[in-house]
Amino acid sequence: MSCWMPGCPALSMCRGLAMLPITCLERAKDLKTRLGILLHKSELGHRIGTSGKLQLCSRRRDSSQEVLEWRESFDQLLKSKNGVTAFHTFLKTEFSEENLDFWLACEDFKKTRSKTKLASKANRIFEEFVQNEAPREVNIDHETREITRKNLSGATSACFNEAQAKTRTLMEKDSYPRFLKSASYQDMTKQATSRGISKRSHT
């Protein structure tokens, strides 16, 4: 739109824009671009947020079932990362988490392939959990302790098998039943059961 007549509004506007510094015009363009990006991000964030909520609901359903499976057997509990975490938290209240830590250290030890690392790891585990007056000594009998000590001379992935089995049995027969009766686990099962009932009522 152009106009040559004096006092024309369009002519005044064009002159006004021409007189503006270039930096102002550039800033206006930049602002427009940024607004466009922000609007795009807002729409994208809404889509991602909706997807995230769906995934969270799915995880909650899975975890609810998982919590109820822990009471089926001690093996089911140990197979679950969340189960191990919950059990470890419970053992801390009884000041006996070293039993589970030793069991987990043995599981990790069995995965070691390097003979050099195997020997150094074996000594470290023995000193921390097995030897007399170890900082985190586990409750095993003298005979098992001595067998484990002898196994260190030719460390293999099986050198802690007997001590690990004894510790596992102790946890299964002693700590595990108490964990199932604990207030924390009872609360978890109530929540899991209520989620299951809620899910069935919506289907």
TrEMBL record:
Primary location group: membrane
One GO cellular component term noted in the UniProt record for this chain: membrane
Database matches in InterPro entries: RGS (IPR016137), RGS_sf (IPR036305), RGS_subdom1/3 (IPR024066), RGS_subdomain_2 (IPR044926)
One example of a Gene Ontology biological process annotation: negative regulation of signal transduction
PROSITE patterns named in the record: RGS
CDD domains, A to Z: RGS_RGS16 (cd08710)
GO molecular function, one term: GTPase activator activity
Keyword annotations of the record: GTPase activation, Lipoprotein, Membrane, Palmitate, Phosphoprotein, Signal transduction inhibitor
Membrane topology type: Lipid-anchor
Domain annotation RGS: ranges: 73-189
This protein's record includes keyword Membrane: yes
Cellular location(s): Membrane
Superkingdom of the organism of origin: Eukaryota
Role, per record: Regulates G protein-coupled receptor signaling cascades. Inhibits signal transduction by increasing the GTPase activity of G protein alpha subunits, thereby driving them into their inactive GDP-bound form. Plays an important role in the phototransduction cascade by regulating the lifetime and effective concentration of activated transducin alpha. May regulate extra and intracellular mitogenic signals.
Full protein name: Regulator of G-protein signaling 16
Gene: Rgs16
